[in-house]
Design brief:
alpha+beta, four-stranded antiparallel sheet
């Protein structure tokens, strides 16, 4: 999906962008919020993914850890619930 990344999401991910470059992808929605994932370069060893939820009103929530997998699955339309 190709969607312009909101500036607030880029600001929330600025620490990643400074280290690895500007590589954020829109994935869909989760509980009414737009879901953006930071995509690390392939040769980078990382832990859990970084997901950013944007509510459309300028608020961004950064999520990492096990919960990211549930959000990613739902945003990609793979959620069984």
């Amino acid at each position: 999906m190709n969607k312009e990344i909101p500036q607030k999401v880029k600001e929330a991910a600025s620490f990643l962008i400074e280290m690895y470059g500007d590589n954020i992808e829109y994935l869909g929605t989760y509980q009414g919020q737009a879901v953006y994932q930071y995509l690390f370069p392939e040769d980078t060893a990382t832990g859990y993914p970084f997901v950013f939820l944007h509510n459309g009103a300028g608020e961004v929530q950064k999520i990492t850890g096990f919960k990211t997998f549930k959000i990613l699955k739902a945003a990609k339309g793979l959620d069984d619930e």
